[in-house]
Amino acid sequence: MPWCLSMSSPFRVRFAPSPTGYLHVGGARTALFNWLLARRTGGKFILRIEDTDQARNTPEAMKAIFDGLRWLGLDWDEGPEVGGDHGPYFQSQRQSIYDAYFQKLVEAGRTYTEENGAVRFKFSRQPILIPDLVCGDVQFAATEEPDMTIRRPDGSYIFHFVNVVDDIEMRMTHVIRGEDHLSNTWKHIDLYHALGAEPPRFGHIPLLLNPSGSKMSKRDEGASIESYIQAGFLPQAVFNYLCLLGWTPKTETEKITQEQAVALFDVSDIHHSNARFDMTKCTWLNQQHLRDLSGAALIAHVRPWLEKDGLIIGDEGYAALALESVKEKVSMASEFTPWVHYFFREDFPIEDEVMAKLKANAQSPALLAALSAGLKQAASWDEAGITAAVTDVATEQKVKAGALMPLLRFSMSGQTRGPDVKIMIGILGKERALARIERLSNLL
RNA sequence: GACCCCUUCGUCUAACGGUUAGGACACAUCCCUUUCACGGAUGCGAUACGAGUUCGAUUCUCGUAGGGGUCGCCA
């Protein structure tokens, strides 16, 4: 049994972003691991907005955080738009709480005021041990750093202070965060002790690096969650890929569902070293998940991109067949259009390559005419009936059936790539198929 | 500069003292095939370096090098 299930009190973990940009992929993964821990243990996942820096906060950034987390399926049990017993969940609304805790520190004699009014916290200057869930015991010697400022001259508080106060007030039991915080954690523990509180269990997860090995920055491909939404990724695929960066589920395949991740997650399995981001593998995983979609779900996922490209989905049953016929050939929602556009319009272009191939063979017009006549006689308009009709034409024209297939493909789609020809013809229907052979013949 | 974390194929990783160091992505070749893809097969390819402990180190210890992080009146 994982260590986490043997503990009695319910876990309380949080994600505490500051709304100063977009939702960063590294932050999303931190949120993901916290969420997994909560869901795995039946605990609570809390969202807290650290918006103490009024100058840099934006409503857009706040929306990006909410949208991004929800898109990934990381729902929070307490926090903005949800509520909870430990609110408010915006630091900008918790000034009085901070004032009260600050007073405790003053009374304990652990503060002093600078000439300009800023207030510093007196470090205990004792060695401090961090029993880290991921890194193990990390020992910091008594510090020689200057005491830490916790309150500005204007009365507002610094990150380290509000972060600790909120984690105490919100009853956090575990803090899973990026390893970039490890070097400051002893300061937080010092604060917990000064406030007479028991520190939570810490777990510092490795950082996400870009392909060249440095910390993911704003400009790096895939840095914002929004970019995945816009690129046509499936949230379950991005969720899956993020799981794989820093953690290995003990499964046969790397493709896992959210449910599997929840069932298998264990903090003690989190890796110790940083991981580089690989968009190619993320894309591959998207393809794997895309194949699981069908019918209405597939249409819902792809529709925005088809409509953006001017294609109109009429009958959903027809559209589902069209999309399913090519879903294994693409890896992203944004890639469907060139594979399916001819299903949704009659005026599709005929590629130059197609015309060249047709004109290179003097038999093309005769074969097209024969196919038209043969298909008109097809006993049934399904794969078997179409196959039989084409075979008959091939026999009669003394060619291999394989030689006729490209002609049909060209007629139906005007291009060289697409789904299986018989499937394609079946979906289009007899009337349209014959009309398209006619149309191509007239162009020769 | 001080302190902290890390180091297995190009990338993500498996191995918790004993394996011909395994898998996935990528790449290459082949098979399948009307196209593209999927699928299947094969190939390519790694324990940073140096000591030590041990019968035996990818695994434990130390050193070196390299990478990352922290040291704000940012979060």
Give an account of the 3D structure.
This protein is mostly helical and 444 residues long. The chain contains 18 helices and eleven strands. The chain has helices at 25-41, 59-71, 95-107, 159-169, 185-194, 225-231, 235-244, 258-264, 279-290, 295-308, 316-324, 337-340, 352-360, 364-376, 383-397, 401-413, 421-428, 430-443; strands spanning 12-15, 44-47, 111-113, 119-121, 128-132, 136-140, 148-151, 174-178, 201-205, 208-209, 275-276. The strands form five sheets. Strands 3-4-7 form a three-stranded antiparallel beta sheet. Strand 5 (128-132) and strand 6 (136-140) form a beta hairpin. Helix 4 (159-169) crosses helix 5, helix 7 packs across helix 9 and helix 16 packs across helix 18 (430-443). The chain starts with 11 loop residues before the first strand and ends with a helix. Residues 1-6 have low confidence and may be disordered.
Entry summary:
The protein is built from 18 helices and 11 strands. The chain has helices at residues 25-41, 59-71, 95-107, 159-169, 185-194, 225-231, 235-244, 258-264, 279-290, 295-308, 316-324, 337-340, 352-360, 364-376, 383-397, 401-413, 421-428, 430-443; strands at 12-15, 44-47, 111-113, 119-121, 128-132, 136-140, 148-151, 174-178, 201-205, 208-209, 275-276. The longest helix has 17 residues, at 25-41.
